[in-house]
């Protein structure tokens, strides 16, 4: 297995800059407001200072990375939509017509779509082609992929972030497209976040309760057939995960190694964050939770990773839509740091 790139990237992740965080805290407390009164905006300002080492970093160049991959387990009827939607949506991302494109335009962010495992031949000048294989195998019969394929997909994510960093991007958001991927994510939650299957399996694209019960049985079968090793996140990812989930774990690890903030989208992206947190715990301080997805297991999954959501919007789309919305909150936090008057400059009496 060629995991050297992964290992060296993990080893290069630094601790966040404590001094910069303390300086941000002191500055926030000097501003004309009761201490702590801007809540999560203050937490974001402290965190971005710690991540970048700068009090007011320039995070204007930002990108959402949409990893796309297919799932063999769709044969079992776990999604409300057919697998063909994955490549069709990839074309939609490339044409700029998907929800994430609209929200990214509003947030001045680039959208980069990566084919890490779509089950179709795809070619487009704007597509980042890093295909590891044509979709996963049906995990109720065999492992979703080989261990080295999981590592290759993680590496594709790391290298995508490195490429975008070299082009000037300094803040990232995770997005994904892969029909069937709430099933794989639920399996990962069950093994690695110790969640009961009943909690982890949700309605995804909108199946009914009867189909959700079937989806629970599908996850149970996949776990019984593959027996993933809970102490080995890459083994679990390979057996019951997905190529786009692996790619996003790489994005999260890569962003941390480059000292860049990375905003984690909904249920599936947080499953990727769970993988990253297991194989590189030091990457977690570089992650920002974004929204609380309507997918039922998301609250517990966020807790397992140690993230808290910025917004509650009842969204359940994926693609990076919730994460991209949160670029606005990072902008707001940095503007507060930059523009607000201090007690001293405004002549306001302190407590
Ligand atoms: C048109 C369309 C666009 C989407 N964009 C994201 N997803 C979301 O739905 C899928 C996960 O749900 P499940 O596990 O139930 O298949 C993923 O592709 C996710 O990104 C979409 C789904 C559809 C149908
Ligand atoms: O929270 C998500 O990311 C999500 C939930 C349902 C379907 N697709 C994505």
From TrEMBL:
Annotated transmembrane regions: none
The UniProt catalytic activity note for this protein reads:
5,6-dimethylbenzimidazole + nicotinate beta-D-ribonucleotide = alpha-ribazole 5'-phosphate + nicotinate + H(+)
Q: Which UniProt keywords apply?
A: Cobalamin biosynthesis, Glycosyltransferase, Transferase
EC no. given is 2.4.2.21
Q: Which GO terms describe its molecular function?
A: nicotinate-nucleotide-dimethylbenzimidazole phosphoribosyltransferase activity
Cited Gene3D superfamilies: 1.10.1610.10, 3.40.50.10210
The pathway it acts in is: Nucleoside biosynthesis; alpha-ribazole biosynthesis; alpha-ribazole from 5,6-dimethylbenzimidazole: step 1/2
Active-site residues, record numbering mapped to chain: 319
Q: Name one Pfam family in it.
A: DBI_PRT
Q: Which domain of life is it from?
A: Bacteria
- What family does the entry list? Belongs to the CobT family.
The record's function comment reads: Catalyzes the synthesis of alpha-ribazole-5'-phosphate from nicotinate mononucleotide (NAMN) and 5,6-dimethylbenzimidazole (DMB).
Q: What is this protein called?
A: Nicotinate-nucleotide--dimethylbenzimidazole phosphoribosyltransferase
Q: Which organism is it from?
A: Paenibacillus spongiae
- Which lineage do the record's taxonomy fields give for this organism? Bacteria, Bacillati, Bacillota, Bacilli, Bacillales
